[in-house]
Design brief:
Distance between the termini: 43 Å
Strand order of the largest sheet: 2-3-5-6
Number of strands: 6
Number of helices: 3
Largest sheet: 4 strands, antiparallel
Strand content: 25-35%
Order of helices and strands: EEEEHHEEH
Shape: flat
Length: 146
Amino acid sequence: MPNYDLHHLGAKTPYIDKYDPTLLEAFANPHPSLDIFTRLVSAEFTSLCPITAQPDFATIYINYIADLKMVESKSLKLYLFSFRNEGMFGEDCVGKILNDLVALLQPKYLEVLAKFTKRGSIALEPFVNYATPDYADLKRQRLGRY
């Protein structure tokens, strides 16, 4: 069995409740020549409103086309959990998630959509995406849908 150098998978899980991008881990993409579109969904995301400190609940959708690295899913779960007690607006959350994953993975394409639970009858669904120059058309097309 290959050594993936992953620290979270298979280990006792300490839940960090302060935003921590160092929790993210990656492994080598076994098919970097293929454009595999990967979707990751987390239905239990929470953060805090920075003004009221009330909890905000969301489903996070992360779609990406990997280049040389892929995100390890347990580390992503721990990373997303680390937002739990952070006071930040939903738009800030998706921006941080995108920037942290791009820094870790250097993907061909990556997008983050958060569907926050309605509060005061208003739904918040911030979307952000990133693409290398070869995937700029995909970025424009996907952004155009929002």
